[in-house]
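Researcher: Next sequence.
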Amino acid sequence: MPAFGRTGVLRRSLLRACVIALCAAGTASYGQNEASVDSITIKVGEKIHVTFTEDGSRLIKPVVSSSPPSEGASISVELVKMGMQRTLTVTNGYLKPISCRARFKVFRRTERLERELGPVAGEQDSMMSFPDPIEEIEFFDFRLQEG
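Model: Next structure:
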C-alpha cells in the first residue's frame, strides 16, 4: 500500500473536484430547450423540496432545497430504491392539483423516456413504482390544474 500523505490527499481532492465540475458542466448542457429551462432533477436516494414562481397556471423558476420552506407552497419529491424497484413520492403543497412532464434516465440506456405525470391533488401525496432501474428523473413543464 502506498503512503499518500498530504500531497496524495490534495491530488485526490483536486481530481474529485475536477470530475464533479465536468459532470456538472455536462448535466447543465443537456436538454437546453424550452421544456428544460425550468426543470429539476432528482437521483435515487434523494429528497428535495421545490418552490416556484407562479405565472398564471405555469410554475416557473424552481428553487431546490434540502429542507422544506418556512412559508409558502412547495412540492417535495423523493426517489428511493426498494429492492429492484424505484418508488417516486411527490407531495403537493399547493391548494390546486399539479402536473408536469418527466424524463427518466434508466440504468445502461442512453435514451431518456418521457411521459406526463399527475395530476397530484392539492395538498396530497402521490406514489409511483417503477420496475426499471431508474437512475434519475428530470421534471419540467410544471402546471397548476383547475380542480
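Model: Residues 6-35 have pLDDT under 50 and may be disordered. The chain has two domains: 1-30, 33-144.
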